[in-house]
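Intended use. Records like the one below are meant for learning the mapping from a protein sequence to its folded structure. Do not use them to infer anything beyond what is encoded.
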Amino acid sequence: MDLLGFIITVILLTASGALAPGPLFFQTLAQGAKTGARSGLIFSIAHTIVEFSLILLLAFGLLAVGNEPVIRTGIGLAGGIVLILFGIYQLFGIIRKKPVEKKQEMPTHRLFFIGILFSALNPYFILWWLTVGSNLILLALELAALAGVVFMFICHVWMDYAWLIGVSYFAKKGINALGSRWYQMLLGIFGVILIVFGISFFGDAILW
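Structure written out for the chain above:
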């Protein structure tokens, strides 16, 4: 895969995860309604710490065993299946809207702790990186070893900051991002993208 193709793949796949509603997203809405962009920034920093730590652990593990055909095929098959299932779930999920709970404004250290907790204990997040993310890490390692992994993370992490800060800012303004038509359409588009990439991952793993 060339550099441009790699960047596009990382952005499309990781954007689908970043934009999908989850525990941290709903906390961002709830706390953003009180504190504005501040809560989104704190949650983003906390999420970055958890995510980058997990990526480095996976990268070092894959450096040791990633060249084994069985490992690569297994990751490809698992990643493809998970992408397809997440894509279907996302398409069905756009018709469901979870109400945002009203909460009291929290101090910075509590917001940071919530960001760590809701990232580290989110099964969607962990499963994504163990399957789909591992496939991206393998591609990054092939591209430029550990430097490629750092580059992959940079291509992704800015979306977390832009999205969470934006969501919390507009929540303070009283704009319901979750219920907006453009957001529902975006989730639908990314749901289809996930399924397409899932089929591609699955096919590549079989042909490996």
